[in-house]
Design a protein that fits this description.
single chain; 124 residues; mainly beta; 7-stranded mixed β-sheet; 4-stranded antiparallel β-sheet; 11 strands; globular
Length: 124
């Protein structure tokens, strides 16, 4: 059974950077496309970024494009999200998700395995 464990969430000031990690176990990591989603209080879960199996194709929400970078290490079975120039509106619980499929398209309903999430708070 696939397990996903996120880490790296913190409280930071606007303009700072954070790197989130998601450790994958219980399956063959390279067979899964991966994504990050986030959920702010009182709001629905929203897509942040996705990456294909081999890391050659990425996809971002417009709100994070040019500030966030998704990547993966298929040797360490780990997914990353580098977040630069953080803004207060980036605050939320960030969760990684996995599904044994190709490409990067699809909303949260496309993903069958989820981590518990890690809290990111951006505030001055």
């Amino acid at each position: 059974q696939v397990q996903l464990v996120e880490s790296g969430g913190e409280s930071v000031q606007p303009g700072n950077s954070l790197r989130l990690s998601c450790k994958f176990s219980g399956g063959t990591f390279i067979m899964y496309k991966m994504a990050w989603f986030r959920q702010a209080p009182g709001r629905e879960r929203e897509f942040v970024a996705a990456i294909n199996r081999i890391g050659s194709i990425t996809n971002y929400a417009d709100s994070v494009k040019d500030r966030f970078t998704i990547s993966r290490d298929n040797v360490k079975n780990t997914l990353y999200l580098q977040m630069d120039n953080l803004k207060p509106e980036d605050t939320g619980v960030y969760s990684c998700a996995a599904t044994p499929a190709q490409g990067t398209a699809g909303g949260p309903e496309s993903y069958g395995d989820w981590g518990q999430g890690t809290q990111v708070t951006v505030s001055s």
